[in-house]
Specification:
heterodimer; A: mainly alpha; 8 helices; B: 389 residues; alpha/beta; CBS-domain; six-stranded mixed sheet; four-stranded antiparallel sheet; 18 helices; MetI-like_sf (chain A); transmembrane helix (chain A); transmembrane (chain A)
Chain lengths: 220, 389
Amino acid sequence: MKDLGLWQQFFYYFQHNGMYILGKFNQHFLISIEGVLLAALVGIPIGALIAHYRRLSNPVIQLANLIQTIPSLAMLSILMLGLGLGDQTVITTIFLYSLLPIIQNTYTGLRNTSPAVLDASKGMGMTKWQQLWMVEIPLSVSVIMAGIRNALVVAIGVTAIGAFIGAGGLGDIIIRGTNATNGGAIILAGALPTALMAIVSDLVLEGVQKLVSPKGLSES
Amino acid sequence: MAQAKPIVEFDHVGKTYPNGKQALVDFNLKVMPGDFVCFIGTSGGGKTTAMRMINRMLDPTSGEVKFDGKKVADLDPIELRRHIGYVIQNIGLIPHMTLEDNICLVPKLLKWPKEKREARARELIKLVEMPEDFLSRYPHEISGGQQQRIGVIRALAADQKVMLMDEPFGALDPLTREKLQDLVHYLQHDLGKTIIMVTHDMDEALRLATRIVIFDDGRIIQSASPAEILKHPANDFVEELIGPDRMNEAKVMLATASSIMLNNPVSTTGDVTLGEALVKMNNHHIDSLIVVDDEHRLIGELDIGQVMAHRNLKLKVKNYMLASPRSVFEDDLLSSIYQTIINRHLKYMPVVDHDHRVVGIITRSSLATLLCEHVWGKADPEDNADEGK
């Protein structure tokens, strides 16, 4: 092993532990996406709520901002005290981190709906819900998706650190590499797929964002 | 026949905002079916406030607004709005919906079946002379004028009888605006829609409205037909709003016979002789006489040519005059008189009141004077004085 260069070691590791890495990759991805989806489920309604009751918007966004300022390792440790080791703690952390971009983008998107369009929709007899579903959400879906994209990229990074509290994922491989003597190749075997995952999911979500944004909106 | 009921009625309506600002004060108005009412006035004068109360986009703080005899305060605002067309200045087409979906928005909210909606969309797009394949386009793919045309037909897609328009054509270029004005005129005049339009464009109001309501500072300054407003502006504010050019133009358009006629024309009774009539003509340097009865009613006219033809100056005027001559009433519009005078080469036209008593005459030169005044302004009396020296 010692005679091999770093990249050769890297490929060697990959060849011999491919399925293991793939398993960690899947686990990593699922943890990240689970946290983000939970945050979307909670964050989008909150965003919609504060867009309509604007007085709530400041305290809510401030709070989400506050959560964001806590370093991820600190957050993981604090939550670990309550939730114990394992992936549920990481998912909760991701959930909390993802709230800000999702709430804020939902809020911004909905607030930016053209007042003329809203006035016309109301004046034609749409209920508040119809305005939300038929007009505001479709018009702001791409901004909301941008928030989710943002959240997912951050989440993939947080999950990597989550390995410290036993959540699994590619972070496991990275930690193993840091513990081994000359473990550079192993670190890479964990780190490169993590980076790849972040880049690819960003690209994929960009595609999804284009797909779900309604056709009539001009490209701008 | 029963008197038609107003479709929209304001009954002592007021709106005071919590900060104490009075947006509307004791507003009363009855809008009859088929009316075209224009609200005009300064911004912040209350016109938009008043209009938005009809479909309950705003609620009054005092008084009642009625729609079709029912108090709107008792109606479900959502349901009410679906039965009143709504057109706004910024058009407000929904950008991610095709023109068809935009047009059929209210029918869809009212749960019309799909086939009926599609048929309606095709019918309406034909009305505004746009090709049917535009229905699948999106709002940003068509011009501003076309967008507002869609905005207008969207407001009548569910066959709403009343349409509210808030400065609908303010942002359009003059040519497009004119076309759209033709469209809404057609909707009101030919399809019998009732239209209530907020505008700041007096030309638009004068052109389209059957009634103009002028607002200032939350109060009605004047509410009358366009002709009435031009003829009798309630105060300086209204005059200013109309503008000097239009006032001047209106003076000509709406001038009546009495405004330019010469008073006390030379007349005679029928019982005098031709000779006496001739003397009278000579004294006044005129070549014709108006013949009246004892109560000064017009019975004929006598031309110098007729006198000369008979030579026998002892004959009575009443036997040789031209009986029952052409005449006009003092309140006839000049615009309806002048053609007769010019086409028939009449030298003058007697003006009578409604009891047929002669009150004056219009000569060709009085028409010419009016025309000159309109084109070059009133003659300055000082100029005349100079000429006299």
